[in-house]
Amino acid sequence: MRLKDKVTIITGAGSGIGRETAILFAKEGSKIVIADVNEKAGLEVAETIKNEGGEAFFSILDVSNRAQIRQVVKDTIDKYGKIDVLINNAGIIQDALIVKMTEEQWDRVISINLKGPFNCIQAVVEPMINQGSGVILNISSIVALYGNVGQANYVATKSGLIGITKTLAKELGKKGIRVNAVAPGFIITPMTAGMPDKILEMMKEKTPLKRLGKPIDIANALLFLASDESSYVNGVVLSVDGGMVL
Fold first, then answer.
1. What confidence tens digit (pLDDT) does each residue in 36-87 have?
2. DSSP per residue over 145-213, as a string?
3. pTM over 0.70, yes/no
4. Which of 46, 66, 108, 182 could lock 56 by a disulfide, CB 3.0 to 4.6 Å apart?
């Protein structure tokens, strides 16, 4: 098992990439903290992991709520005594062209997608420093690398996560903490489910592999970055996009 006895907190773990990652990490021996705003979905993931012989618990979490984050970290330390991996996966979209984007749309996406990871990182850094090790993984996006019409708010957050990743890799590396990011391409998740079929087909055609990604594609990349196999990987943004940005 590649993550035997590791403890992993995954935000937004109730569905999509987060759900797939939680189940995969549990199979690889990690104890999982399912952190999500959707209690029903989060409890279902935790139950799935337990039914498959893994260990997990659910904790309600809105990543914009610093008090909730501190509670999740406290509960994790109380139960398992440490935090080895944080995956900042929670995110939302509220798309609009810049001329129509409201301040509320801008602020909400920034609050969840950018300030949320900042909040979570601040909460876990102290215990990670105290134990002399840790892995922080941020979910960015390929749109952070080339932009996307109607997503100025979303792209700003995902680009910001790349900057945070590289900065904290320098700040925290000497503390034994590695910080990396994954930039998914177009992945079949609840977030993309509402996109028009013609857009999804266009994205498929733009991808050299001629298919959209699956959550497991991202989970496998995160597994490598969380494991000791990547012990000399720090400050990297790994694109998992089927070659779309080539």
1. 999 999 999 999 999 999 999 999 999 999 999 999 999 999 999 999 999 9
2. HH--TTBHHHHHHHHHHHHHHHHHHHHHGGGTEEEEEEEE-SB-SHHHHTS-HHHHHHHHHHSTT-S-B
3. yes
4. 46
Domain total for the chain? 1
Q: Which two tokens stand for residue 4?
A: 């035997």
Q: How far apart are CA 93 and CA 16, in angstroms?
A: 14
Token pair of 53 as six digits: 């012989």
Question: Does residue 245 form part of some domain?
Answer: no
Average pLDDT along the chain:
96
pLDDT of residue 246: 57
In a domain, 243, yes or no: no
Question: Residue 43: which domain range?
Answer: 7-237
Nearest partner of 138 among 25, 34, 236, 243, judged by Cα: 236
Domain at 31, CATH number: 3.40.50.720
Which are the catalytic amino acids?
Answer: 154
Q: Is residue 77 part of a domain?
A: yes
> For residue 14, what pLDDT is reported?
97
Angle at Cα 77 formed by Cα 56 and Cα 118, nearest 5°?
90
* Owner of token pair 């990743």: 165
The sheet with strand 237-240 has its strands ordered as 55-60, 31-36, 7-11, 85-88, 134-139, 177-184, 237-240
